[in-house]
Design brief:
The strands form 3 sheets. The chain has a 6-stranded mixed beta sheet, covered by helices on one side. Strands 3-4 form a two-stranded antiparallel sheet. A two-stranded antiparallel sheet has the order 9-10. It starts with a helix and ends in a 14-residue tail after the last strand. By secondary structure, the protein is α+β, with helices and mostly antiparallel strands. It has 10 helices and 10 strands. 31% of the residues lie in helices and 25% in strands. A hairpin with a 4-residue loop joins strand 1 and strand 2. Helix 2 crosses helix 8. The radius of gyration is 18 Å and the shape is globular.
């Protein structure tokens, strides 16, 4: 939480105004931010200076791990985060690749589970990682990437948190996650939870101990219509101590994640928070 608030303060104090073409809004922006989450000690990096809807963040990432390409599937899991990008993004609505209502195209988990190869077959990146890490193998390329420039026009949104690299030292698993762009008031709250939960979940299903997760952000920004709420409301509040995340120990394989796992298999213990803040969302 302290890392999050420090980044928010840094953007306000050191940020430069830039114009965002996609949204038509100005952003106060800094380049290069690094956050570290100690998954081994289970200090869950959830925002406490406003209410965080952590279940939606985990549901969204479960959808990525399952390779979902439709907003309706995300909604069934408990995440409505893709509704606007699927159905309100004008560029995507005009894109001939769009298949209809709720279609997302080849985004995020589609690339992670069904990367298109030149011969027409597909590559399951996540399956390779789970197999290697379960057998104690780290070939220094245990990488899951959603970033496929050759297919950007086939999806509604380029991935923001785009690449996850796992490293195995003995029986301790580490994660380094890379993010090209981050809406700090809204997106980072989700992204922190997802990085933490991803390492915890992967360690559990591969039989390893979780270590630390390193979260690297290139472009961190606050939109012009979010600035007053961040500066005058959220940063004026005192944070609470971090809660703990508990994952159902019966989740033991990738097949479990693909089939029966729901939000009921995740619990957050001791989450104290301030009132919600209704930050504007930019499509």
């Amino acid at each position: 939480m302290k890392q999050y608030l420090a980044l928010c303060q840094r953007i306000i104090e050191e940020g430069t105004w830039t114009q965002n073409k996609r949204t038509g809004k100005k952003c106060l922006t800094v380049i290069d931010a690094d956050l570290t989450y100690d998954v081994a000690s289970n200090k869950f990096p959830i925002v406490t200076t406003r209410r965080s809807f952590w279940k939606a963040a985990i549901a969204e990432f479960l959808g990525y791990l399952r390779g979902y390409d439709n907003a309706a599937d995300f909604r069934v899991l408990g995440a409505k985060t893709w509704d606007a990008n699927a159905n309100e993004n004008k560029a995507w609505l005009d894109n001939p690749a769009r298949k209809g209502e709720d279609d997302l195209g080849r985004v995020y988990g589609v690339q992670g589970r069904r990367w298109q190869k030149p011969d027409g077959s597909t590559l399951d990146q996540l399956r390779k990682l789970v197999d290697d890490l379960s057998s104690g193998l780290d070939d220094r390329a245990e990488i899951l990437t959603f970033y496929n420039p050759g297919e950007f026009e086939l999806g509604c949104l380029r991935p923001c948190m785009h690449t996850h690299t796992f490293s195995l030292l003995g029986d301790t698993l580490f994660l380094t996650s890379y993010q090209r762009s981050c809406d700090v008031p809204l997106g980072l709250n989700f992204n922190q939870i997802q990085v933490f939960a991803f390492l915890a979940l992967m360690a559990q299903i591969t039989g390893n101990k979780p270590g630390k997760a390193f979260h690297k952000i290139v472009n961190a920004h606050i939109y012009e219509d979010q600035l007053e709420l961040m500066r005058d409301v959220q940063l004026s509040r005192e944070p609470f101590i971090p809660p703990k995340l508990h994952i159902n120990p019966d989740i033991k394989s990738l097949e479990d994640i693909e089939s029966w796992v729901t939000l009921d298999d995740f619990k957050v213990e001791g989450y104290q928070h301030h009132e919600p803040i209704a930050y504007p969302f930019s499509v």
